[in-house]
From TrEMBL:
Protein name per UniProt: AraC-like DNA-binding protein
GO molecular function annotation: DNA-binding transcription factor activity; sequence-specific DNA binding
Pfam families: AraC_binding_2, HTH_18
Source organism of this protein record: Catenuloplanes atrovinosus
PROSITE patterns membership: HTH_ARAC_FAMILY_2 (PS01124)
Keywords: DNA-binding, Transcription, Transcription regulation
Length: 323
């Protein structure tokens, strides 16, 4: 079985409106309840949104033709804004930040007070669970996890988020009607990893804890069997550990000891082999492409896919497809 047939549809919506009540209702449904007010002449108010969503990942391109004062209730997803132009002043408890063009802004889960001055920005939204799951792997329990600030730890980190944002936007901007489920899962994981790398949070100060003890070969064999059977599906480290009956750290230690590879590295190798099989069977005259096969197996970076493929099989994937 391949992952090629499992796609998540992309929902798209465009909105232009001068009706503040209509805009408030739409934003409340999409994110959280909030109260927007126009500062100045309300007759000049205008709003525009270009929205795309696949599963739990969405991007919204928003612009207000007005200076807005907005009070928003707490929300339960990850919301990260990339400013394009205009001003954005946000207060959350004791935190306050002002951002402008080409800056990334993490919106805390608390209630927010915002002043937006003729802003244009793009909002990425994905599940908070993706972040807490990854933080747990890094040694911070979900109950102890928190973000500590709204802006990036450095200009270099800010650029990392902007690059991640561009990749996520490109995925949802594709003219295709759907995104491969495996690729969508990988994209959400990338977004979570970038958020943890860019915005100050508890994983940046976690103490080192000694690793687990010896893991039996049978445990690793159970994990390998699970990966081999489920490689065409979205698979996490937690899934592999649960199948093996041990903790995430234990299964990672077992793979390093017995196979000299990480569980996710082994999963990547299996998917690379399956992609190789699909390329050998594919017919380019029917429209089959290297990109479609690679993305169907969750490879989001086609340049890296080509390099890894060549290292594994001694030739470029396009040569396999066309011979």
């Amino acid at each position: 079985m391949t992952a090629m047939g499992s796609h998540v549809p992309i929902e798209r919506a465009e909105m232009r409106s001068r009706d503040l009540d209509l805009v408030r209702e739409m934003i409340s449904q999409r994110y959280t309840d909030h109260l927007p007010q126009v500062r100045g002449d309300a007759r000049r108010f205008g709003f525009r949104s270009g929205f795309a969503r696949a599963g739990a990942l969405s991007i919204d391109r928003v612009s207000y033709q007005a200076c807005m004062a907005i009070t928003a209730d707490p929300h339960d997803t990850i919301l990260i804004i990339r400013m394009v132009s205009g001003g954005f002043d946000v207060s959350a408890g004791r935190q306050r930040r002002q951002v402008s063009g080409d800056e990334a802004l993490f919106l805390p889960h608390t209630g927010l007070d915002m002043v937006q001055d003729w802003p244009r920005y793009e909002v990425v939204q994905f599940p908070a669970e993706a972040v807490t799951r990854l933080a747990d792997q890094l040694g911070v329990a979900p109950a102890d996890f928190r973000f500590d600030a709204m802006t990036a730890v450095s200009p270099a980190a800010n650029r990392i988020w902007l690059a991640t944002h561009a990749r996520l936007a490109g995925l949802l901007d594709t003219p295709a009607e759907g995104v491969p489920a495996l690729l969508l899962s990988a994209a959400i994981d990338i977004a979570a990893a970038a958020a943890l790398s860019v915005f100050p949070n508890a994983t940046m100060t976690v103490d080192y804890v000694a690793g687990p003890g010896r893991v039996a070969p049978a445990t690793v064999r159970r994990a390998v069997a699970y990966i081999d059977e489920h490689a065409a599906e979205p698979v996490t480290s937690e899934d592999i550990a649960a199948a093996a009956g041990v903790s995430v750290r234990a299964v990672q230690a077992g793979f390093r000891r017995h196979l000299d590879i990480t569980p996710m590295g082994y999963l990547r190798r299996v998917r690379l082999e399956r992609a190789h099989r699909d390329l050998r069977a594919a017919d380019p005259t029917t429209g089959a492409t290297v990109a479609a096969v690679a993305r169907g197996w969750g490879f989001t970076d086609l340049s890296r896919f080509a390099a890894d493929y060549r290292a594994a099989f001694g030739r470029l994937p396009r040569h396999t497809l066309h011979t």
